[in-house]
Amino acid sequence: MKLCIIGSGYVGLVSGACFAEVGHNVICVDNNQAKVDMLLSGKIPIYEPGLEELIHKNVAAKRLHFTTSTEDGVDGSEAVFIAVPTPPQSDGSVDLSYIEKVAREIAVVLKAGEYRVIVDKSTVPVRTGEKVAETIRRYNKTGAEFDVVSNPEFLREGCAVPDLMKPDRIVIGGNSEKAIALMQKVYEPFMAPVLVTDINSAELIKHAANSFLALKISYINAVAQICEASGADVEKVADGIGSDKRIGRNFLNAGIGYGGSCFPKDIAAFIAISDDLGVPFTLLKEVEKINATQRERFLGKIRAALWVLQEKKIAVWGLTFKPDTDDVRSSVAVDVVRDLIAEGADVTVFDPKGMEKAAEHKLVEGAKYAASPLEAAQDAEALVIATEWRDFEAVDLEDLKKVMHTPLIFDGRNLLDPETVRAAGLTYTSIGRA
Ligand code: UDX
Ligand code: UDX
Fold first, then answer.
1. For position 231, which CATH number holds?
2. Mean pLDDT of 188-212
3. If you placed Cys at 366, which of 126, 202, 341, 381 could pair as Cys (CB 3.0 to 4.6 Å)?
4. According to the model, what pLDDT value does residue 337 have?
5. Is 99 a residue whose pLDDT tops 90?
6. What is the tens place of the pLDDT at every residue in 65-81?
7. Could you tell me the strand order of the sheet in which 115-120 lies?
8. Residue with the nearest Cα to atom 16 of ligand 2?
9. Which of 116, 192, 199 has the alpha carbon at shortest distance from 152?
10. pLDDT, tens digit, 9 for 90 and up, residues 155-199
11. 222 and 135 share a domain?
12. Separation of alpha carbons 373 and 398, rounded Å
């Protein structure tokens, strides 16, 4: 099938590459000329494991194309996916201006006598599909035939390719049988369970799913606080409750809180959506509050140990919002670095993939960048682990102890094993365990 994706970011580009991989002919559109030029010259603008190989392979097979022209993209495509950003506004509600703009751009190039399915892949508030359809009808002067479908994306950064190639489920929300049949054909090669719903339910599933996952994280983080107060071990508690199939162990890792370009904005959006609908989802406000507390408590532990942070040489391992990505957007690790700098600490950071983007966007101004974990830790009076990269686990603890001024470790992601670290002669503090 010929498919078009508008917006070639984390979601659009990976989706496009995976659709091409299963045999579709895909054209990815992006209004950022530099990004399209980069893709056309064989460079990949984001780091995502497996993506580069997938793109090169499918470009060579002539199944994956890039353009800045919406008209070229929509021309001949049976389905047009919208994957542009839906950023938060200051009150937490969703900025839908990119979606609206793309709907107008699509509308003016739809031709009479051709049928198109317009698919919303971006995370949007419930009832956005109705608005997109209304906008296209208003701006299309040819009376072109189309349907709007919601097809939310559940990929996680860092494992986006396997998440897309082997999804737990595919959600297709639509109010037209013709559109749903076409979407089922798009997804047939993935051989995954397909859940067909009405459009509003599909839109709601995305916000409800992400909010539930964030709730799970805040739940275990609140339990971690109780573990700290009572001398219990949150890892053991998580294993104990997570081995109940009804609960599950995933997303029960305590830490300095969730971040990234999805959870913080999606939870805030769901709160705003529920407020708007007159049914305030107050539980989610508590989820946000616990998340913010985690970082504050962690900083409190560092302050308690170092007394004054001013002029203290602190190493921070990790800048990305999670491992296996170069994404530093809304990263708690970045916030921690900024907090330390604001208190006058002399911070040196290392991240395997996130330093370029952090420097480009000036996210941690005042921090120095190191070329390796050990270089960052050189002469440090404390080391903070803010992202759980496997690379950090591999660092030899004897070497680490040797290079540090004072071997104080604050592990915000429970990456290391307390006994092993202490046996190596380092002082270790983590989350929710003694
Ligand atoms: C996506 C979703 O679309 C968002 O709703 C979801 O909540 C998170 O994932 P993401 O892929 O992470 O966003 O965004 P980004 O990596 O910023 O990519 C968006 C792309 O769209 C960019 O390359 C940008 O240049 C492009 N874009 C933006 C357009 O092509 N046209 C526009 O009008 C606006
Ligand atoms: C999330 C959803 O998982 C995905 O389905 C959705 O489509 C997009 O948003 P992503 O933001 O890429 O994916 O990463 P995710 O793995 O969900 O992690 C989000 C944040 O939660 C990270 O900051 C991570 O460190 C944190 N987290 C995750 C925890 O603190 N504990 C956990 O147990 C799991």
1. 3.40.50.720
2. 97
3. 341
4. 98
5. yes
6. 999 999 999 999 999 99
7. 64-67, 25-29, 2-6, 79-82, 115-120, 145-150, 170-174, 194-197
8. 156
9. 199
10. 999 999 999 999 999 999 999 999 999 999 999 999 999 999 999
11. no
12. 13
For residue 208, being part of any structural domain is answered with no
* Residue 202 maps to a domain: no
Which domain range does residue 378 map to?
A: 213-429
Comparing C-alpha atoms, which of 262, 6, 30 is closest to residue 123?
A: 262
Model pLDDT, residue 248: 98
pLDDT given at position 434: 84
By most ligand atoms within 8 Å of CB, the mutation choice from 155, 159, 262 for ligand 2 is 262
Mean pLDDT of the chain: 97
285-289 average pLDDT score: 98
Helices and strands in the chain, H and E counts: 18, 14
**Catalytic-residue membership of 262:** yes
Alpha-carbon span 317 to 197, nearest angstrom: 43
Burial readout 136-159 (b: 16 or more C-beta within 10 A, e: otherwise): beeebeeebebbbbbbbbbbebbe
Query: Exposed/middle/buried for 130, CB within 10 Å: 0-12, 13-18, 19+?
Result: middle
Amino acid at 202: A
List pLDDT tens digits, range 345-399: 999 999 999 999 999 999 999 999 999 999 999 999 999 999 999 999 999 999 9
Q: Any residues with Cβ below 6 Å from ligand 1, and which?
A: 6-12, 30-32, 35, 83-86, 98, 101-102, 122-123, 261-262
Q: Are residues 189 and 244 in the same domain?
A: no
The secondary structure of 153-195 as a DSSP string is: --PPTTSHHHHHHS-S-EEEEES-HHHHHHHHHHHGGG---EE
Q: How many residues does the chain have?
A: 434
User: Which ligand lies nearest the alpha carbon of 318?
Assistant: 2
Q: Say whether 108 sits in a helix, a strand or coil.
A: helix
Determine which helix (DSSP H) or strand (DSSP E) holds 411, and give its type and residue range. Answer: strand 408-411
The structural domain count of the chain equals 2
Token pair for 265: 């904005």
Contact 325, 157 (CB under 8 A): yes
